[in-house]
Structures are given as structure tokens and as C-alpha cells.
Write a structure and sequence with these properties.
With about 290 residues, the protein is of the alpha/beta class. It has nine helices and eleven strands. The protein has a single domain, classed as Alpha-Beta Barrel (TIM Barrel).
Length: about 290
């Protein structure tokens, strides 16, 4: 199982020096990937329920620094050599898909094939409204946008005609370095998201909610893949989680559970204002990773 870590591009460490230090440290300690989250603007009043906290409250205050994710990954690409670079997740329906495809193709080309697109439909209506983008039908738009992106990445004369986006006979270069295209990991836990992962994804990127729940939903993803005429084994299981890094025995147990249900890549969160403490936590996880591979 590969292990990646979230970059500190949110909060007090969202600055040049901390990002360089942490990205190079994580790569030197053998982590497989570096990750970013996505919010362009944080509304001051949010009625939408945040799906990943028990009380439904979004934990990030509106004035907390939050660096743009794709720009952050391009920056990280310039100061690292080997770690893969991914979005967990990019809210694709908030963006023009051609520009998104171009940014990610640029990232993949300049990083020598290290980009991963973790994509999702989004949940915060108020953010869509501030960006003047429709919130309704965002899932269907995401499906169209992903097909546009794939066409631009893989076709010599890209064309796509969908319900929410059309493009015809476009020139698009350079193509990504990764062939046939950078991996697309689909986030979300609703029925439509699971179907999307099975039909369009190279992986389902789950917010970890325990082995039983994730394993059960992954079986749904595999069934959707098979129904779409795809090999279910071609859709990997990946997770994002906040490991109990202050307790390495518990962390070891969590990693073991993830391995047992077939997780191929785990993204570990670790947020804070103290870079040295953050690196210490990551160092403990790196030592566990080394022991697991021994």
C-alpha cells in the first residue's frame, strides 16, 4: 500500500518556505505522493451540511489562508523529483473543464508524469453561488467535464458533445506525459458518485469511514464497473483519512485494516501551525511505512 501526505497549503503554514520544507521532507522520507484540497472561496455564512464531520459544520474559517490547489501542486512539482502530485479532491464542476485539463496537462508534463486528478462534484452550494456557477446538476456536469478532459488529454483532434459542454476539433498540446492519461480518482459516497467511479474512474477515492463501510461501498463501485463493461480490477480503492498519528500503535492498526480491505493508496491528513511538530508526526508515519515494507 502506497502512502501519501497532505501538503500544509491551508492555514498558517501556507507559505513558500513551509511548503518547500515540508514537500522535500516528505519526499526524502519516502512518501509516495503529496496532496492538496480545494476551496476557492469560503463563504461567511454556510447553510450547506459538510458531509465529513459529525455536526455538519465546515471546519475552515473564511479568513484562513487557503492556497489554490493546482498552483500549489505546480509549485511542489518544481521543488520535488519523485512524489506524485494529486488533488483530494478538485471540485471540477466549479471550473471550466478545458482550463482544468490544460492546468493538469501542464502539471503532468512539467513533473514528468506525476499528476493525479482526484475529482468530485462538491457539496457547498454557497461556494458555487459566489463563483456564479450553477449548483444544480453538478454531478451530470462533472460527468461531461471528465469526458471533455479525457478527450483533450488523449485525442489528436479532441471533440466532445455533451449536455453541459461541447468542444469540436480542438488543438490541445502538450498532452500529459502519463499515457494514456493521468489517473482519475473519483471522490464521493452517494450512489451517483459510486457509479461515476465505476464508469469513469481509475480509482474510487473514499473518505475513510472504517473498513466495513468502505469495503461495502467499494463492492458497489466494482459492480458498476462490471455493468459498464469494464474490468472491476481496473478501478482501485484509495482512501483519505486522518490517522491517529499521536498514537503509532493505533496508526499501525488502521494501516493494517486498510491493507486488509485492499486499499492501494492512502492519503494521510495532518494539519497544524507548527511545522516541526507536523514533520515529527510524518516522521513517525514514515517509520511505520518502512517497517511495513521491510
Amino acid at each position: 500500500m502506497e502512502i501519501g501526505v497532505h501538503l500544509p497549503h491551508i492555514g498558517p503554514l501556507a507559505n513558500r518556505e513551509a511548503l518547500i520544507d515540508f514537500a522535500r521532507f516528505a519526499e526524502e522520507r519516502g512518501f509516495d505522493s503529496l496532496w492538496v484540497s480545494d476551496h476557492v472561496v469560503v463563504p461567511r455564512t454556510i447553510a450547506s451540511r459538510y458531509p465529513y464531520s459529525p455536526d455538519g459544520r465546515f471546519p475552515i474559517p473564511p479568513d484562513l489562508p487557503f492556497l489554490e490547489p493546482l498552483a500549489t501542486l505546480l509549485f511542489a512539482a518544481a521543488v520535488t523529483q519523485h512524489a506524485r502530485l494529486g488533488t483530494s479532491i478538485l471540485v471540477v464542476p466549479m471550473r471550466n473543464p478545458v482550463i482544468t485539463a490544460k492546468q493538469l496537462a501542464t502539471l503532468d508534463a512539467l513533473s514528468n508524469g506525476r499528476a493525479i486528478l482526484g475529482a468530485g462534484a462538491g457539496w457547498m452550494r454557497e461556494e458555487f453561488e459566489l463563483l456564479d456557477v450553477p449548483f444544480e446538476h453538478r454531478g451530470a456536469r462533472l460527468d461531461d467535464y471528465l469526458r471533455v478532459i479525457k478527450a483533450l488529454w488523449t485525442e489528436d483532434r479532441p471533440s466532445f458533445h455533451g449536455t453541459y459542454y461541447s468542444i469540436d476539433d480542438a488543438g490541445f498540446a502538450p498532452k500529459p506525459a502519463t499515457k494514456p492519461h493521468p489517473p482519475i480518482w473519483i471522490g464521493g459516497h452517494g450512489a451517483r458518485a459510486l457509479r461515476r467511479a465505476g464508469e469513469l474512474g481509475d480509482a474510487w477515492h473514499a473518505a475513510y469511514a472504517g473498513p466495513e463501510a468502505v469495503s461495502k461501498q467499494y463492492q458497489d463501485v466494482r459492480r458498476y464497473a462490471e455493468a459498464a463493461g469494464r474490468d472491476p480490477d481496473s478501478v482501485a480503492l484509495t482512501v483519505r483519512t486522518r490517522l491517529p498519528l499521536n498514537d503509532l500503535e493505533r496508526t499501525k492498526d488502521e494501516l493494517q485494516r486498510c491493507q486488509e480491505i485492499g486499499v492501494s493508496h492512502l492519503v494521510s491528513e495532518a494539519f497544524g501551525a507548527d511545522l516541526d511538530k507536523l514533520k515529527s508526526l510524518m516522521d513517525g508515519l514514515a517509520n511505520l511505512r518502512v517497517k511495513a515494507l521491510a
